[in-house]
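Before a colleague's protein record goes any further, I have to sign it off. Thanks in advance; the entry in question is below:
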Amino acid sequence: MAQSSKLKWIILAFPLLLFIWLTIFLLRGLFSDPTELSSALVGKPVPAFELPDVYNPERMHTEAVLQGRPMLLNVWATWCPTCQAEHAYLNKLAAEGVYIVGLNYKDDSRAKAVNWLNTLGDPYQVNLFDERGMVAIDFGVYGAPETFLINMNGEVVYRHVGDVNDRVWQQVLGPKYEAEMATYMNQPMEAESATAGGQS
């Protein structure tokens, strides 16, 4: 008899526990910031790839273009209205000396991408053409726009989902980029100091 009432209690409690679990799960999603999705790549080297240039299909680029100095990798597409909204700000950042590489994501044609850049301006130092979106998948991209901060060693430091605007730059991306630039700029100086210290 006791076992029967215990089983009855479990059957009655299960829906309640399931409801509580679902409520907690949904509330966490409701109050989380989708622009701060973490990336499995943070702290790791960028994935290996080989992609053609947007302007010149004969010119191939590898992951080496994402090494050697701090930079932003901006994932964009002509079919993405938010990409158009952020484009003027990217042009502004590029004019101020911010180094940006573009990853054109799943566009219908190279011609559309080139026309976009010719019309709206090109803030990118290098522009990769990821026609099938396979490299974007390796980066864990959900859609466009997304922007990755990459350090001088070619490692992902931060991932931002959504458009880059003045608020995002001033509060989040800009300080992180400047910190990486400070480290980058101090490298040769530190090496020279070490050499001078060894000679004295």
